Structure formats: C-alpha cells, structure tokens
Amino acid sequence: INGIAYDLASSAPTTVAGNSRLNLLRKELHSLKANYLITEATKIPFITEKANQIQARKRILHGINGYDCPKFFYLEKVQERLNKCNITKSPSMQNLIDIMIMLCIRSADVKNLCINRYKPSRESWYNPDYSWYCIGYAKNKGEVEEPWPFLSIEKNLIQARELLIWIQRSIPDKFPFLLKNKNGNTNVAPLNQFLSRYRITSYMLRKIGADHAFRVHGGRNDSCYQYLWQLACRHKIDHALSVKHYGVMNDRPNAPAPKQENSEVEDIIDLYNY
C-alpha cells in the first residue's frame, strides 16, 4: 500500500500536487471505511513535510507581495455588470463569476447557499447589527452550521438573493460543474479556463470579493479591514490567522493626472526638468 501511495504522489507534476493526491486517496479510503492501518500506510511523511514547506513559503510571499486585481474585476466594473444582470434570461459564465465575487463565495457553496432575513433572536449566533444571514456555506469539519451575518458588495440584499437564486436555478443546465461529486468536490476547470484570459483562477474570486466588500462597507483601518474580511469570507472572528492566510489585494495603481492643454506652468516645469 505504501509503495502504491508513493508512486501515486511521485507521478504528480509537483510535490504539492502529489500531497493533494495522497489526501484525496485517504479521503476516499475513509469514505469506504477502510482499515485504519491501510489508511495510515498511505502517509508519506517527507512528501507532506516538503509540500507544507512550499505552501508556507508561498503564503509568506503572498503576504508580502499581495495580489493584483485585474482591471476587469475592479469594484466599479463588477458593480456595473451586476446592475445590468437580466434575471429573465439565462445567465452567462461571466454572470456566475461576478455573482461569486459579489457573494465572496467558493464554487462548492453556490448550489446550497441560502440568504434570508432573520428576526431578532437570543441565540448566540445572532448579531443585532445584522438582520440578513446566510446558511449552506462550507464550514470546518465537525462544526454545527449556524446562520452567519451576510455581507456583500451588493447593499440591496434582496437583489443579492435574487441574483443567487437566478444562478442556482440554472446550475443543472448551464453550470453542472457546480454540482458536487461523490467526494463532495466541484469541478473548477471550466471556471479556471474562462478566467485564464485574466491570468487568475477561481481561487482569487473570494479574495477579490472580500476586498471589494471592505471598500463598499467603509473599513477605516487594519482592524476594521480584518473584521469585514472575516465577515465576508464567513470566517470565525477570533481566527485572525484565517484572514492572513488569504493574503491581501494590492492597492490599485494611481493613474497619473492628465496634463491640461495649454498649461503654461506645466510647460515651464517640463522645460526645467528637461
């Protein structure tokens, strides 16, 4: 068993991919209720350790360098396309992607996410600052699902819910890759193929959405940024590291102010600079 697992991991294009294969193998064995010793035999410690080191270095670099948002997905451009959505027609792949950004959502969450207005409650999950909550999002293993305050770049939350339902109704015919397989995974290949023209993957959509939500809801400092980011991503508020793991979007470059025609002052400055 150990030799088969090693061959499976070694045939992957990268160490990280090889480790992912081992994780998927163990998950499959667990679902089949395989013997504990068989599952343990699939562990290749040095591959897992090396993969973790590579990913840790990438997280550090991402934290330092940040991520550049493609111009096509700047906040105002996404908002403009969302405002033009016609829910009486069949949605396009671009509609799906914009709505995933709007909801700051994983592909695995699209089908089951549910957004509703909740009455005041004494439950521990209820926050009096929010009346709209969502359920059906991916969560950590073993956690009991509780409604989570809903934060979106679309401030009209009724409109946000309608756009989500519009996409969900189209999944069987237009977006079957969003249906989970027997392992509980969705096929992100069609999304990534569409996004390749912008040199990003579906992994970036949630980051972009969280950053846009922060800008829309007026975060004023780093603490507020982290709080709003965690709300948008539906992360536990006391898990600050979860936000850092996602990295941050870089500020958009400031375009130089256009030179005014017939500006004598600027002409003089240019003359001296020359």
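The record above closes out task 2.4. Task 2.5 opens with a second protein, given below.
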Amino acid sequence: MSSNTSQRGSMPMTNERPDDEVPPDADDAQIRTYMNEDSEQPVRHLFIDWPSASVKGLYTIGACMPDVSPPLFDMPLPEVVQDNAASAVFKTRSSPINVTVNILHGQGGGLVPQSTPQVPNKLAESMRKNTVFVSGKSVSNSVTINVPNYVGRRPLHIRCKSTAGNVTVAIPRSFNGMLSWRVETGTFHMSPEVSSHAKRLDAEQNKRHGTMKLVADPDLPAWMTGNGKRGDVLEISTKTGRLIVYMAGEKKMTAHGCVVA
C-alpha cells in the first residue's frame, strides 16, 4: 500500500453540497479519521482487478472527491461510473479479497431537488447516479468487505459474490434497506444484532435464497439514515461457501455464534 501522508493535508472536494442535514462536524470527524489511518488516496471511483493477486487494505471513496486521472489502480468500468455517484469495485479469480471501505460524505451533492419535476426515466437515472456502490467478487476464494460508517441520503449498494469461497460483510449501523442472499449448497448466517433488525419478506422460508428488510436503529440521528428513507441494498451470494453478515463494530463473526436463516 502506498503512503499518501503528504496528500492528506489538502483534500480537494467538489463544491456541490447536499441538503441532507448532515452536521458539518460529522464531515470534519470523517476527515480527521481518514488522516489518521493508513488508507490509499481518497477517490470518487476505484477499481482493482487482480486475477491472481489478493486484494487487501483500507480504501476511501466519496462522491465529494474529484475523479483521478490516471486512476490509482485499474480504469473504473464506464457503466459503474455512469450509474453511481461513487464506487469501489474489487475483483479476483483465485485470490481472496479482504478490504475496508471508508465512504466520505464531504460536500458531495447531486441529489434530485424534491421540487424539480422529473419524467420517470430521468428520475430513475438521477436516483441511480446517486448510489454509492461497493462490490467484491472472487471466483474461487473468499470475499470480506467492511463498510464501517455511512451517513447521508445517497443509497448504499453493496454486492459481494464468490463461487467457492466464503463471503463476509460488515454493514454500517445506519444501513436501512434490503438484504438479498443466495447459495446453492452453502449456508447463510447473520449476527444476533443484524438478526434483531431483520424482517423476512419471503412468503416461505427457503434454505437457498431469501430477502429481508433491515431497519436501522430508530435511536440513530435521522441524518445518519436519510430520515429512514434511504433504501440501501445488500446482495450476497456464493455457491458452496458460507455467507455471513454482521454489524460494523461487532466482534468479527464466524458461522459459530451467528443466526442461521
């Protein structure tokens, strides 16, 4: 991992500002945390595609950050850049992925004004481009993604997939939306804390797939969850491994001690 200490004193940001009631001191706290961590340079869109090398470390993205040219690693996929306000995408074939993704709120804007008339296709396009996307995919090894914190109104979309490995995801406590999981011969597990916030939406229980609604703690400040209307999405799947979901800040979970769906 490269050292970016010299770049942290002045972090350029876009001047668009969302009206999502996130206190300025929350932004300042995020920046201070970032400056004290050994993270790569923050960018808007990040893509790492290493077929035979493991991907690990701490990365920082944010819609408030400018695009970087040339990119830090691989060139972000055009469709991902087009469809999301910010993104971090990790891909391998035979090696594991084990990353933490910090997401800066900053001053990034681009929200659709509520008073602005929108035809349906334009509204859908605007909503899609508001998403912050985090993805991990390994063909034959494990995927571990940790998103420790997330605030604001932009929907958070996490997608993790493996064919033969385990998939472990730590979601932020402000996560408020849908969880969709799928296995073939594998198993799905939630930590007790995640389970306490989950409501099954399937008419019948199935050992191979399921959909749940995760409701954030109502005691959290409204600005952390987009007033409870953000609509986050978590999609996880594996064929033969284990799926494990827990809350960021909990002791890292294994299948032992989790709730089996």
